[in-house]
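Support case: user asked for a sample of complex input and structure output to validate their parser. Sending the pair below.
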Amino acid sequence: MHHASIPGLTFRWLLLLTLTVLVAFSPGNSQGFPYLYFVVWGVTLVKGWIIIQDFMELKQAPSILRHMVFGWLLVTTSAVTLTAVFG
Amino acid sequence: MSSSPVNHSLKKEIPGDLALWFFLMAELAAFGVMILGFAFVRLTEPDMFLEGLNKLHLTSGIINTLALLSGSYLAALGVHQVRKQSPKSHLYFVAAAAVGAIYLFVKMNEYIGLYSTGYTLHTNTFFSFYFFSTFFHYLHVLAGIVILLLVARWLKTTAEDSESRNRAAEGIASYWHMVDIVWIVLLPTLYLLK
């Protein structure tokens, strides 16, 4: 089975930390700019995808399991984002 | 009883045990219901929700996210080290538990801060959901830390075969990543989407 290498994991970890800090402290985060809601939505999906694929190692798992976990991420993240936009 | 080729392939490629994944999916379903409930409250009572969000501190949310992501990274490295049969592999799981403890400390401070200013489970629907869902998550982090330490101790002291060691390491790492992924969704729900 092919797993992410240690340098690969380190790169992904640093990317996750950077995305977290950049989105949290980006200008306008607390001022209700709708475009930022979708940036947060996209970044959350990317972060979740990295964890599912490379940290959880579901890249090698049967696709049904990977799709169920990513489906959970997609449904919950979309629900909280859409209710923030339209609520 | 012989297993079919399909079952064999499923067991071979899933990190940890198949039974663990039934448990993890059930956990995700429980958290999913809570998060969807949160979203529904926001839709029905947006002003109350926004007022509640503004009482939470973004810095706490960010520190906790960085701590859990770092714990996940260390657990993933630990799995690599166990596969390489490194004698120091248990230290990665101890480090993941130590980083997880930062989350417990910061979250408890946040609870104490809110409680001391009069916000409790009974304040309104927002805080009922907030305390219930985050404390449920808190208990999962606490359980994860205990199991990480137990697995680390077992890895250090046992002379089990490499297959058992790999499965134990993959199992606790998968649990920790599940806890992490739930927090990845709770972060925007509670701190970012204002």
